[in-house]
Amino acid sequence: MGSNAAQGITVTGVSRSFGDVHAVRAATLFVPPGSVTALIGPNGAGKTTLLLMLASLLAPDTGTITIAGHDPVTDARGVRAAMGWMPDVLGSWPSLSVRASLEVTGRMYRMNRLDATARANELIGLTGLEALADRPSRVLSRGQKQRLSLARALVHSPSVLLLDEPASGLDPAARVALRELVRRLAGEGTAILVSSHVLSELDEMADAAVYLADGVTASAERVALAGASARSWRIRSLDPAALERGLLASGVSGIQTDHLGTLVQVDNEAAAADLLARLVGAGVRVSAFGPAVGDLEHTFLDLSRPESNGGAA
Amino acid sequence: MNTIPDTTPLRQPGVDRTSAGDFLAGLWLMVTLELRQRVRGVAWYVLLGIFVVLVAAVTVLLWLSTTAWETGGGAVFSAVIFFVLLLGTFVSPALSGNAINGDRDIGTLATTQVTLISTGQLVLGKFVAAWITALAFLAAAVPFLLFAVTLGQVSLATIAVSVLVLAAELGVIAAVGVGLSGVVTRPLFSIVVTYLIVAALSVGTPIAFALLGTATKSEQTLTSPVGCDDPATTGSIPRFDHYWWVLAANPYVVVADASPGVFDASGNPQDLFGWIAVGVRQAQVPPDLQGEAPYCQSTGQYFGDDGGQLSTARELYDNAVPSWFVGLGIHLILGAGALLWAWRRTLTPARRLPTGRRVA
């Protein structure tokens, strides 16, 4: 699909309030086709409100939104034909079977009966719901409903996909399958926006991240600063005593030891590489050496700190 | 989730747009979805069974008691029709009053709204489904109505008109229920408000009619009859004729008044419905504000009514505005207004949200 700027998701200066509550104040983001962007923020940051606006359910007070080239306020139908939305609320028609739910959804997108049936079968296989296909959806567990919800969002093969907490309630195998599916859809040209609290999950899935705090998306500069700030690295050695001697000799600050290993504060990746070289040079037998938290989590924690100083230490 | 097959085609669905046919197809999809969701429960069939048993019991009891008085099928028919309306007004709000906000609560409203189903299809689909559900009760009662025909005295035309008007009344209740479910956020509250509106129409209208009529008074001047020296007297008289439409808005009155009036040779109604119709239409006649006293106090002479001036029940019925037409009109405006309001409140993307309402 290439990098057509009219495709994908474009959000510029969007705000939305409910009475006195300013859920979203100033959101700006861009998700190009064929990529996965993580939407990250603390509880109450306005993630779901932003997704509801993108899903053409809520009108923004100010700002503009474009989904696959359509404005949800003036051309909701155009948006809906191209957009799939997996809500954070698990809703399903309780007395309809999984198969019937997907068929009805397909028919709501104006597929004919045959196409809807075929697509339902395809999606049941894709989400691993074969064994439950003819059971009423009220008997599904939370994770199974989550898969049904994902399947429903994919019924009309959307070119823009909005996933609100897609991984919650999924077992580890299903999370891996979700990640593979999301990556594959992105590979086929879909623009995907994923909101989640499971940041390690997003680390492996997302090409880019948008941080939303108090309804404001963090600017690229702030994100870069936060990402570059000092962070913890975890080191494990076959000989902890030798490791401690080596660290002290290297003049490293903030050494903490727990049952998983030793945590040290390192300014940036270059300093980490230097430290590893010195430790190995000093004969310390290092078995593990890496950042203690993922990139997204590190940035997220740094940005969510009140009055984030953000600067490199 | 299992391993993903690499070759799953992600094809574009055939999205084509023609207006009327697509609208109806989507509407019917919503109707069938709603019926599958709500009606296909054991509880619903139990309810229908209880309803049939009740109607059967009422029919048999009425038949036994009226044959004792030798009045025949007319009474049975009128009573069964009223009984179906009564039970319909009990059942219908519960089945329709949470159509939209109930879906919002279980999270299936928003997932429907993000599809190509329009708000109009959504609201109308739920209304049609609620109406069909209520009509099932009417259909279950039809055998008993036909039984009343076999007893004689009731024509098939009367039955047909009554059933049609009853069907329309059930539709109005369904529309009010679905409408309120789109306006009020909490399902329990919208069901209760629907019951209150039904109660206001069924019980409230006669009370309002009586109170409004007696509270509005006009001055009536009675001149003394010829040959009597009494001074003219003035008194106040209630003006029910201003408020006959309030009574006409009663669903029972609508059903009764709509059935073709059948009168005997002396112009008196043959059945219960006829008497109700005559009574309600009588309220349209304004009182004579410049009358002649029937009694001379000074002489003690009673003048009485001139027999020729009094019209028969039939004349009164024929000369009045058909009150069922006005009543049904009021109901249709009420039902359509409720649906329109629900449509406006359910439109997406939503601009203003009532406090406490979630979108999804």
Features:
heterodimer; A: 313 residues; alpha/beta; six-stranded mixed beta sheet; four-stranded antiparallel beta sheet; 11 helices; 25% strand; globular; disordered C terminus; B: 360 residues; mainly alpha; three-stranded mixed beta sheet; two-stranded antiparallel ribbon; 13 helices; 5 strands; 6% strand; disordered N terminus
Please give the structural blueprint.
The complex is a heterodimer of chains A (313) and B (360).
Chain A: E1 9-18, E2 21-31, E3 35-40, H1 47-54, E4 62-67, H2 76-82, E5 83-86, H3 98-108, H4 113-126, H5 142-153, E6 160-164, H6 172-187, E7 191-195, H7 199-203, E8 208-213, E9 216-217, H8 220-228, E10 231-237, H9 240-250, E11 256-258, E12 261-266, H10 269-281, E13 286-291, H11 295-304
Parallel strand pairs in A: 3-7, 3-8, 5-6, 6-7
Antiparallel strand pairs in A: 1-2, 1-4, 8-9, 10-12, 10-13, 11-12
Helix pairs in contact in A: 3-4, 8-11
Chain B: H1 19-38, H2 42-69, H3 73-96, H4 99-105, H5 109-113, H6 119-150, H7 156-183, H8 187-215, E1 217-223, E2 233-238, H9 244-248, H10 251-258, H11 272-282, E3 290-292, E4 295-296, E5 301-302, H12 313-319, H13 323-346
Parallel strand pairs in B: 1-3
Antiparallel strand pairs in B: 1-2, 4-5
What would you say about this model in short?
Chain A has 313 residues and is of the alpha/beta class. Helix content of chain A is 37%, strand content 25%. The two termini of chain A are 42 Å apart.
Tally of extended strands of chain B? Answer: 5
Count of discrete alpha- or pi-helical segments spanning 4 or more residues of chain B: 13
| General shape of chain A | globular
Structural class of chain B: mainly alpha
Mean pLDDT of chain B: 84
Oligomer: heterodimer
Listing every helix as H and every strand as E from the N terminus to the C terminus, the arrangement of chain B reads HHHHHHHHEEHHHEEEHH
Count of individual beta strands of chain A? 13
